[in-house]
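Good morning C.,

I know you're traveling, so I'll keep this short. The sequence:
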Amino acid sequence: MEHVGYRNYRTYMQVVDRCLKKDGIAFVHTIGGNESVTATDTFSNTYIFPNGMIPSIAQLGRAMENLFVIEDWQNIGPNYDKTLMAWHANFEASWPSLQARYSERFYRMWRYYLLISAGGFRSRFQQLWQIVLTRQGSSQPDCRVS
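The tokens, ready to paste straight into the viewer:
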């Protein structure tokens, strides 16, 4: 969803609805934010994810309205800090073998991005959501984990 853009959230959900089997279950995995925004920070937009945007609960809720029933919404964001820090450690450990192919500028920007992202999750400013959806009117799904 971070690459869809707020103007396209509803269209995205309509495509999910159109592609879902009659009693299918949809799964959405996205980084989420605590407030609704319509732009991203200049650094990320310029160097990392052009036109990327982190959706809020309100924005996704409006996009899903009258299409889906939310069966489950989990936030696994607190664990994503650890993932990003592991990526950072791997990046640092691999840098000696990569630096012939990439610039010092790339190194600094990617390192900054990994660490600022980890900070966003650590501070709970960003979340990582896993959302399970069914169509309105579909039979109750069996979402038990076996």
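Safe travels,
E.
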